[in-house]
Amino acid sequence: MRAVLKLGTSVLTAGTDRLHRPRLVDLIRGLAAARASGHELVLVTSGAVLAGWEALGFPPRDGTLAEKQMLAAVGQGRLMHTYATLADLYGLPVAQVLLTADDFRDRTRYLNARTTLEGCLRRGVLPVINENDAVAVEQIKVGDNDTLSAFVANLVEADLLLILTDAPGLYTADPRLDPQATLIPVVERVTPEVWALAGGAGSHRGTGGMHTKIQAAEIATRAGTPVVIAPGDAPEALGRVLEGEPLGTRFLASGSRLEARGRWILAELAAGRLHLDDGAAQAVRERGGSLLPAGIREVEGRFRRGQTVSLLGPDGTEIARGLSRYAATDLARIAGQHSRAIEGLLGYTYGPEAVHRDDLVRL
Ligand SMILES: Nc1ncnc2c1ncn2[C@@H]1O[C@H](COP(=O)(O)OP(=O)(O)O)[C@@H](O)[C@H]1O
Ligand SMILES: N[C@@H](CCC(=O)OP(=O)(O)O)C(=O)O
């Protein structure tokens, strides 16, 4: 099986303020054992900011992005060194891969990253991925490693995404705040009711809490990859989940396995939203057609030509994702207009479709 394992800061610290070496040894032993059983593994790890803070002796923090970037720059090398040293004990070679949102947006960079990861997997090397925090300013950041792990799962067409964290799974409410909360063992589909279960920002060290984990589950399951959220302190969690043992919360794949291009289209958060009229929604949903400007009622967000947009039906539900052939400002001018009018309105045309059917994934 090909699996992506995501380790949150909460798991790497095991409830302390530092990278917890014994916990890391357990995790790496599990990775080495899974690889020895023939599984292909990719690791997405957090912990660079924490490792940097630890290295500098826990100075007071102001919480700014610049400070996080500096701490990540200090910590990433140390984090990687720790992984490499411990993985050596088990004869497991590791490779560092640092990614940002642009690496998923730009088709060439996306394909390059995929080639590198495939090369690692062929040679039995464990890719250890983190966001390239030191350069990732707001506009080019994925922003949290749960979402990053879902993008990576799409990139390598994983059979499973396992997110280990400090909660035992998805609960009916944040278990830190509500002692009555109970575990939800299986989520068939990420519905608004599931979204409503996510509490706030999570543990004091983590980014995003359950919210970003549900987002990750939605991204990966749509492309056909099931997702498990399980406790990082469960012994042998990786091996047990790979064996199919129920542990934590399993999100079932909602879509059939998408081919590679469809996965790329889903491998980015939508930069804008297009509200369609009835006819256009039907054409996209039922007939698999392209979206013409005539069927667009409203354009939301700022996006460039070629970026991913969400297509919403008249009742506001998302029916598809696709690559826009026009920038948001252009689309706003040609929305509701016949395709023949595009050139007259803009002075140029990129073709009659706002989103071509080849660039669409129905959800
Ligand atoms: N419905 C829920 N079920 C489980 N955990 C939840 C829920 N809502 C919020 N949480 C919080 O999310 C936290 C995990 O997220 P986070 O701290 O960001 O961890 P990580 O570092 O692993 O990404 C849990 O400790 C828990 O307090
Ligand atoms: N890239 C950051 C981690 C960001 C993040 O999502 O953290 P977490 O919620 O602990 O998975 C780091 O290495 O510190």
UniProtKB/TrEMBL annotation:
The secretion signal range is: none
**Where is each PUA domain found?**
272-355
Q: Which reaction does it catalyse?
A: L-glutamate + ATP = L-glutamyl 5-phosphate + ADP
InterPro entries per UniProt: AceGlu_kinase-like_sf, Asp/Glu/Uridylate_kinase, G5K_ProB, Glu/AcGlu_kinase, Glu_5kinase, Glu_5kinase/COase_Synthase, Glutamate_5-kinase_CS, PUA
**UniProt GO MF annotations:** glutamate 5-kinase activity
**Biological role stated in the UniProt entry:** Catalyzes the transfer of a phosphate group to glutamate to form L-glutamate 5-phosphate.
| Protein name per the record | Glutamate 5-kinase
Q: Which organism is it from?
A: Deinococcus navajonensis
- Taxonomic lineage from the root: Bacteria, Thermotogati, Deinococcota, Deinococci, Deinococcales
Provide the gene name from the record: proB
